[in-house]
């Protein structure tokens, strides 16, 4: 058996009970170091722990798949919720196993941000740049989201200098593409741990530096609901 669960984002107290139960029953628990550290108090002493990093993840997931095919109960732990900015890793798990695997919902950094910043999901689009491959379609989509009067919750890309697309780069890109500088913008860091929050405008964000563990909210200037009401179509 193999199951993927989401932990955190940051504090293990946000782990759903069903996922905690799966961890406590597991023979094998695998994941990136930072994520396994979150759940370490819940890992049974007898469980085999398979830690991995960016470089050795394929080989380590092959080992998890081998143990799963040998009949062991395996849990792969993701950060936050698998279903936001977790699918490329999920694809690697499924490639290693050779079949689709079960996933359990977790609590995303986006959900915690929405709760802290009081933003409604219905009027918000989630976009991640924390992904491999061409970012340009996602950049264009973000421009359209804001032009359509929706909020955007954005996970930046913290990788090497060539690829890095952090809040300052995101703000600069949006300004270059005609998004008004006065959009209210927030950046939250280390949610559920040592939280820090920054509030300003898109223009001000273009000069700010934030840590890798940050998530960004760009609020619409005019919510879509009020545009529809103003047009008299509701
Ligand atoms: C690969 S994405 C995974 C997101 C995760 N699946 C989720 O639902 O939160 C990792 C990025 O999410 C953001 N992130 C995750 N946890 C966070 C937290 N506690 N506070 C702020 N940002 C966080 C950071 O930008 C981090 O680099």
Describe the structure.
The chain has 234 residues and is an alpha/beta fold. It starts with a strand and ends with a helix. 35% of the residues lie in helices and 22% in strands. The chain is built from nine helices and ten strands. α3 (57-69) packs across α4. It has a five-stranded parallel β-sheet, with helices on both faces. The protein has helices at 17-24, 33-39, 57-69, 87-97, 109-117, 136-147, 167-176, 202-205, 224-230; strands at residues 2-7, 28-32, 48-52, 74-79, 102-103, 124-128, 151-155, 184-189, 196-201, 214-218. The model has no long low-confidence stretch (mean pLDDT 95). The protein folds into two domains: 2-104, 3-Layer(aba) Sandwich (Cobalt-precorrin-4 Transmethylase, domain 1), CATH 3.40.1010; 109-226, Methyltransferase, Cobalt-precorrin-4 Transmethylase, Domain 2, CATH 3.30.950. S-adenosylmethionine (SAM) is lined by residues 9-10, 79-81, 84-86, 108-110, 130, 155-156, 158, 188-192, 212-215.
Itemize the secondary structure elements and their pairings:
Blueprint: E1 2-7, H1 17-24, E2 28-32, H2 33-39, E3 48-52, H3 57-69, E4 74-79, H4 87-97, E5 102-103, H5 109-117, E6 124-128, H6 136-147, E7 151-155, H7 167-176, E8 184-189, E9 196-201, H8 202-205, E10 214-218, H9 224-230
Helix pairs in contact: 3-4
Bound molecules: S-adenosylmethionine.
S-adenosylmethionine (SAM) is lined by residues 9-10, 79-81, 84-86, 108-110, 130, 155-156, 158, 188-192, 212-215.
